[in-house]
Design goal:
With about 600 residues, this protein is an alpha+beta fold. Among the domains are: about 100 residues, no CATH class; about 220 residues, no CATH class; about 90 residues, no CATH class. The protein is built from 11 helices and 10 strands. The protein has a 6-stranded antiparallel sheet with strand order 5-6-7-8-9-10, with no helix packed on it. The chain has a two-stranded antiparallel sheet with strand order 1-2. Strand 8 and strand 9 form a beta hairpin. The chain is flat, with a radius of gyration of 42 Å.
């Protein structure tokens, strides 16, 4: 039993696998001059060791290198041992000559095998001596090549996601750090704000990261001449581009679902949390030149020194039911908070108090003061969480916004129809009314009654007011419809940008081969800035009604997608990006000027 087992292993180790290469039997008889007995240079094809060629051992990159580095001029796919990679390889023992095959000098005649250029059996170019051909089928090579190309995108993609997200977080921190520190927001609430903000960050980060990853991956492949090797093996740029395109399509589908399911909820919760944060300690949100509501007081200051808490040009108004309405005016003052942060104290200097009794407007009181102190208690030192019921356009899914757009359109259409019918019927009936002529003879033309004319004038005025109200409603609903349509198209335009950026980044990476990270980041930032300008500018123009929402949201994808297709075709043909048109006339050689 053990002997049979080891014999089967020995036989299996000598089986001619399609991915292995066997040495020439004449290797053992080669001389020291560097050539085998068949006359072929052994240094170029066999190496110095008598063991022959190396055999692959489950390394996809080594198999890919062996596939792409073959002798394509003769249609062969064999690799000399001294040119093969040295990672995870093992030797294969030479075949021992037996019987009729052995020559008197101990060498064995080499059989020449006819192979086609594609590696299949058939008539083709005769193989060089000393080779055993590597003939991987195309169906086996494609998965290896596809996974190898996709693997080059993984590292740059996650690196770009981390860097871009970090930049967004830093920008958000700069915007809200004064709010968080001034209102004393605890750390868990701050972390919740940042976590909820990751939703809209991801919608922008993923497309830009795909652009960075594509430029860097294809730039590295081109810098190491792997793109050239793939083309030499008969793989076109379209086949090289297919795996990233398929992956970008999958990311696009996932991003569409994310924008319609996850993003609206995260935006809704973030908006509600920010409203609750602003309600805490509203006095901290006092701004110069604006009216600020603080616990029943309306406060306005002309100047506010945030460092010293000094205020100038103070106007305070307090009004409660059943009490006098007080208006306090002061030249200067200061703001102070109690140690627990629950009481706001205003120390006013050189001012007046004006009081009016609402029940008896004839009574008016005026009091002048040099110093006056106002204490406002319970200004909200604790954060109270509430449930935000209303939703904005960025807090709805595409289906919800389509439902609102349809409802607004029906409302506008019904209002227009109702107003048109009421105007035509009501005014027509009023104008047709008149008084009969005096006398009992033939009927005379009826003249309008002055009272009827007066009623007609009143009806015309009412109709004009109704028409103005309708026009205002139509304009307001039109703005809402445009805003919802912009958000609907944006939810699909941003995911489609993933595919557009692959088409754009691949040829840019091939051309910027030795630029590395700097060139990849530069191209990515440039084109993403262009895309972002188109997106934000189109959104503003569409909200104001200057552009249709579909055109405003899809213009960037169409333009950059067309540019990307042009660059891909140019890379496949190995032409320049932009070729100047030929002149209609050219000077003939030898012609005199």
């Amino acid at each position: 039993m053990p002997a049979a087992f080891f014999r089967s292993l020995r036989i299996a180790s000598w089986l001619p696998y399609a991915w292995g290469m066997s040495p020439s039997p004449g290797e053992e008889g080669r001389n020291r001059s560097g050539t085998c007995r068949s006359g072929h240079p052994s240094a170029a094809y066999h190496g110095e060791a008598p063991w022959g060629f190396w055999r692959y051992k489950g390394n996809p990159r080594a198999r890919l290198a062996g596939t792409l580095q073959g002798n394509h001029e003769q249609g062969a796919r064999a690799i000399p041992r001294n040119q093969m990679p040295h990672n995870r390889l093992r030797r294969r023992p030479p075949r021992r000559p037996t019987g009729r095959e052995a020559r008197p000098n101990g060498s064995v005649p080499i059989r020449r095998r006819s192979v086609s250029p594609r590696g299949r059996a058939g008539k083709g170019v005769v193989a060089p001596r000393g080779f055993r051909y590597l003939h991987p089928p195309e169906s086996a090579m494609r998965p290896i090549l596809s996974f190898y190309i996709l693997r080059q995108h993984i590292g740059p993609f996650f690196f770009a996601v981390f860097v871009i997200t970090f930049l967004f977080v830093m920008d958000l921190l700069i915007d809200y750090i004064d709010l968080f520190l001034g209102k004393g927001i605890p750390l868990p609430i701050v972390l919740e704000v940042f976590l909820l903000s990751l939703g809209w960050m991801a919608a922008l980060t993923v497309p830009m990261s795909i652009l960075v990853a594509t430029v860097m991956a294809f730039g590295r492949l081109s810098a190491e001449n792997e793109i050239t090797a793939m083309k030499a093996a008969g793989v076109s740029i379209y086949q090289i581009l297919a795996p990233p395109l398929i992956a970008s399509l999958l990311v696009m589908i996932g991003l569409v679902e994310f924008n319609n399911r996850v993003l609206p909820e995260s935006n809704h919760r973030l908006a509600g949390l920010l409203v609750d944060i602003h309600r805490k300690r509203p006095a901290l949100a006092i701004k110069a030149g604006m009216f600020n509501d603080v616990q029943g007081y309306t406060l306005r200051v002309d100047k506010l020194n945030a460092r010293t808490s000094e205020i100038d040009g103070v106007t305070i108004q307090r009004s409660k039911e059943g009490e006098e309405t007080e208006t306090i005016v002061a030249e200067h003052g200061t703001l102070r908070f109690s140690p627990d942060g629950n009481t706001l104290t205003l120390d006013l200097v050189d001012g007046e108090i004006h009081a009016v009794d609402e029940s008896n407007l004839s009574q008016y009181h005026k009091i002048s003061f040099e110093t006056h102190t106002i204490r406002i208690q319970n200004i909200g030192s604790e954060l109270v969480r509430s449930e935000k019921k209303s939703r904005g356009d960025r807090e709805l899914s595409a289906d919800d916004m389509r439902g609102r757009v349809d409802a607004y359109r029906r409302e506008v259409g019904d209002a227009r129809t109702e107003t048109r019918v009421s105007l035509s019927e009501h005014l027509g009936r009023r104008l047709a009314e008149g008084t009969p002529a005096e006398g009992g003879g033939a009927a005379a033309p009826r003249l309008p009654d002055p009272i009827a004319w007066k009623n007609v004038g009143r009806d015309v005025q009412n109709a004009a007011n109704r028409l103005a109200s309708l026009q205002s409603t139509v304009e307001e609903r039109g703005k809402q419809i445009n805003k919802y349509q912009v958000e609907i198209h944006k939810k699909y335009a941003l995911p489609v940008a993933c595919v557009v950026f692959v088409l754009l980044g691949a040829p840019l990476g091939v051309r910027a081969r030795r630029g590395g990270l700097g060139v990849g980041a530069g191209f990515s930032i440039l084109f993403f800035v262009v895309y972002y300008v188109f997106l934000i500018g189109g959104e503003k123009l569409a909200d104001r009604g200057y552009l249709p929402p579909p055109l405003a949201m899809w213009a960037a994808n169409v333009l950059l997608g067309a540019l990307g297709i042009h660059l891909v075709v140019g890379s496949n043909r190995e032409t320049s990006f932009f070729r100047l048109p030929r002149l209609p006339f050219r000077r003939q050689a030898g012609a005199r000027t």
